[in-house]
Design goal:
Length: about 270
DNA sequence: CTGTTCTCCTGTGGGC
DNA sequence: TGCCCACAGGAGAACA
């Protein structure tokens, strides 16, 4: 399931093929994604160049002269670049192809269709999906002082707070579990119980696990395929996620699993307090 | 505003 | 080998 590192890896992977290229054709085979794809997308974006591609949270944002094409990979989505004369016949879940003037195409693949392909002609900071997002976890405005201040009134579990996009973006279930393990903090602690020094460690560990995953080229459970079509190989790096009943890699205590906010949560009772 | 539950969807894997 | 079904999950929407 693409988390921030996979999205960033995807952005970096496709950028050389699409930036400054003009869109020559758009093929929508399945418009029913999380939200329906606007039915005249072809008319809107054809003949426009992609000026840049950026990432905000887990959204990929293609800047065009008349607006923004926004994509979200949901939990099973992937983007892949193909040479137009070598692209295989579209598979079952290849929902969108965008063709470019340089002879390449960008293919959006998403079996579970939790992803999205959206057109927005307004100012980005006014987009309803973007305007309430918290800071990027790898940017300077996500820091110990900020986290300490935000958490001090929150009774909910710290893991839920970390996964709330209004607090900080891009920390999904896997990395919330991993960061809390490395920070030595139990996932069900009330957020307001975290001391300033714990917030400082947590910020650092969130940064570390995300940075390591980006550097590793993105993690992979079974759904993620990066733009070169290779599976990532980060999943064996998980210390707690998916490791229920396995010995902790630090102290060998069996990893526990519980449900917090309908989501699987993993932790070590010896390493986390 | 806070907290909780529901919802979209399909591939996977366990049980029999 | 095949069938059935619970489960997984990002995150907005709906509801209490």
């Amino acid at each position: 399931m693409p988390e921030l590192p996979e999205v960033e890896t995807t952005r970096a992977g496709i950028a050389p093929f699409v930036t400054q290229q003009t869109i020559t054709d758009v093929i929508v085979r399945q418009p029913k994604l999380r939200w329906p794809i606007v039915d005249n997308l072809h008319e809107i974006i054809s003949h426009q160049p992609v000026l840049s591609i950026q990432r905000r949270a887990k959204y990929l944002i293609f800047q065009l002269p008349t607006g923004y094409l926004m994509m979200h990979l949901g939990m099973s989505g992937s983007l892949r670049i193909w040479s137009q004369d070598q692209a295989p016949a579209p598979q079952k879940h290849d929902h969108v192809d965008i063709l470019f003037s340089n002879g390449f195409l960008l293919r959006f693949h998403d079996p579970r269709r939790f992803g999205a392909v959206l057109w927005f002609a307004g100012a980005l900071e006014h987009h309803p999906l973007l305007c309430h997002l918290g800071p990027e976890p790898l940017e300077a405005d996500f820091n110990a002082a900020y986290l300490t201040d935000k958490l001090k009134t929150q009774k909910r579990a710290i893991k839920l707070a970390l996964m709330d996009n209004k607090l900080v973006v891009g920390v999904g279930n896997i990395y919330a579990n991993e960061a809390l393990f490395h920070a030595g903090i139990l996932p069900d602690r009330p957020a307001l119980s975290l001391q300033p020094d714990e917030c400082e460690i947590l910020v650092e560990k969130i940064r570390q696990v995300l940075r390591a995953a980006i550097d590793a080229g993105g993690s992979s459970l079974r759904d993620f395929v990066n733009t070169r079509g290779e599976n990532g190989h980060f999943q064996q790096e998980h210390f707690v996620y998916g490791q229920a009943n396995q010995p902790c890699r630090i102290c060998h205590t069996p990893i526990q699993k519980t449900i917090i906010g309908q989501r699987s949560s993993f932790y070590c009772t010896h390493c986390q307090h």
